[in-house]
């Protein structure tokens, strides 16, 4: 399948490139992978001054077995930081943490305003690999992941608004 030109040669400012996903919305969350979600959330509250943490510190991270992770959200107005801790033997973040034992930024999630399936068809037609079928994500909405090797080294999650 033909790859989008921006995937096979460097982006040149001003050059004519086909448009991206036209109905892409705002950033939904930036996800951080860590071995200890509660400790990471405490850092955002105690050191950086975050006030809206869900679930609040003192409660456990929310287990999402379908995704192989547990989550705590640091809510920052319209956007969120999603703190991810591995859950289960086959967690998709296990390998990332093996390579980055101190943790790090794992993915960005962008809202799709409109049909997720249309967005999927569009990125697939550009040669981007979609990682599995859409699933219900942490906010009860459909989400899907795009391969980081096809997205400039960034793991991208799309969330249907
Ligand atoms: C909480 C629910 C939901 C939500 O609603 O918000 C979530 O966010 S769930 C979050 C966790 N789920 C996922 O990440 C699902 C999608 N991920 C995957 O399918 C895999 O993790 C992966 C992206 C295909 C990576 O596979 P993996 O087996 O873990 O690692 P590899 O070593 O095979 O990776 C291949 C290649 O890609 C590079 N890589 C891996 N992860 C990332 C990343 N997060 N960001 C950038 N690059 C990444 C990795 O370094 C390898 O590159 P090379 O070493 O050059 O081969
Ligand atoms: Co996410």
Automatic annotation (TrEMBL):
InterPro entries to which the protein is assigned, alphabetical: Glyas_Bleomycin-R_OHBP_Dase (IPR029068), MeMalonyl-CoA_epimerase (IPR017515), MMCE/EMCE_epimerase (IPR051785), VOC_core (IPR037523)
Highest taxon above the source species: Eukaryota
PROSITE patterns (alphabetical): VOC (PS51819)
Listed GO MF terms: metal ion binding; methylmalonyl-CoA epimerase activity
Keyword Metal-binding on entry: yes
GO biological process: L-methylmalonyl-CoA metabolic process
Positions of transmembrane segments: none
NCBIfam families, A to Z: metmalonyl_epim
Name the record gives this protein: Methylmalonyl-CoA epimerase, mitochondrial
């Amino acid at each position: 399948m033909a790859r989008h030109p921006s995937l096979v040669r460097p982006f040149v400012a001003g050059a004519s490139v086909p448009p991206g996903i036209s109905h892409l919305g705002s950033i939904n969350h930036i996800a951080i992978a860590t071995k200890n979600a509660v400790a990471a959330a405490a850092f955002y509250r105690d050191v950086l001054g975050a006030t809206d943490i869900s679930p609040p510190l003192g409660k456990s991270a929310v287990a999402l077995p379908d995704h192989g992770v547990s989550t705590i959200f640091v809510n920052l107005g319209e956007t969120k930081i999603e703190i991810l801790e591995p859950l289960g033997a086959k967690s998709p973040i296990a390998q990332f943490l093996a390579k980055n034992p101190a943790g790090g930024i794992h993915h960005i999630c962008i809202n799709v305003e409109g049909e997720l399936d249309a967005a999927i068809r569009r990125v697939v037609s550009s040669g981007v690999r979609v990682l599995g079928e859409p699933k219900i994500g942490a906010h009860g909405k459909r989400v899907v992941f795009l391969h980081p090797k096809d997205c400039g080294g960034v793991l991208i999650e799309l969330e249907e608004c």
